[in-house]
């Protein structure tokens, strides 16, 4: 029995999909285990209901379907994703290149039936969703981290800095720290407009930069004084981060000083 979750922010669209699923149930063993009216509600419903397949709307106000898929792909037992969209032909080519299944609104029963039959053989692949997001110019509004077996969402707007440490990247907000296995380079590529690199292992959110401070170097044992360095001051956080000499010209230009 295929367990299906319907996700769409519009009640008529959810009702339409439920009706078409009922038609498909005459030819394939399935049951609709629930529905969600947004991206965050979808993540909560997947964790609670453990569906095999998610019929996922793309254009939703709180979180896009593509972002939802990227978060789900990182879970231990991700469901198969079938996107439901009204995108134009140009955008749909991105789905076809990544071999990601999609349904055009209004959804037809024969097309949904074929997609559900394929869903049994399709496993989610995180890189495919990442590539799809890049093709469509879609960035995430939140990062997902795993804590004690559950998915935790961290709003990108709340992130003060991202710092690479060994195999992890520390996500620092004003409230606390999180750890992610995403690479600093990948995060910079996705969120480069929001963050500036101040060191080879650190990105700082532009909105949290409060200022800069010159740190004088101490004299060494021979009485020689090596060159000092600059530190970045953070808004609402009593913490200073060193800026590398290599990155200082870029940081200075970014800050307009």
Write the layout of secondary structure elements.
Elements: E1 2-7, H1 11-24, E2 30-36, H2 39-49, E3 53-57, H3 65-72, E4 80-85, H4 89-97, E5 102-104, H5 109-119, H6 126-136, E6 142-147, E7 150-155, E8 159-165, E9 168-173, E10 177-180, H7 184-191, E11 195-199, E12 202-205, E13 209-215, E14 229-234, E15 237-243, H8 248-255
Parallel strand pairs: 1-2, 1-3, 3-4, 4-5
Antiparallel strand pairs: 6-7, 8-9, 8-12, 9-10, 11-12, 13-14, 14-15
What does the overall shape look like?
A: elongated
Distance N to C terminus: 63 Å
Largest sheet: 5 strands, parallel
Count of strand segments: 15
How does CATH name the architecture of the largest domain? 3-Layer(aba) Sandwich
Q: Please, could you describe this protein's structure?
A:
The chain is an alpha/beta fold. The protein has 2 domains: 2-136, 3-Layer(aba) Sandwich (Rossmann fold); 158-255, LytTr DNA-binding domain (OB fold (Dihydrolipoamide Acetyltransferase, E2P)). It has 8 helices and 15 strands. A 5-stranded parallel beta sheet has the order 2-1-3-4-5, with helices on both faces. Strands 10-9-8-12-11 form a 5-stranded antiparallel beta sheet. Strands 13-14-15 form a 3-stranded antiparallel beta sheet, with no helix packed on it. The radius of gyration is 23 Å and the shape is elongated. The mean pLDDT is 87.
Index terms:
single chain; 257 residues; alpha/beta; Rossmann fold; OB fold (Dihydrolipoamide Acetyltransferase, E2P); 2 domains; five-stranded parallel β-sheet; five-stranded antiparallel β-sheet; 15 strands; 31% helix; elongated
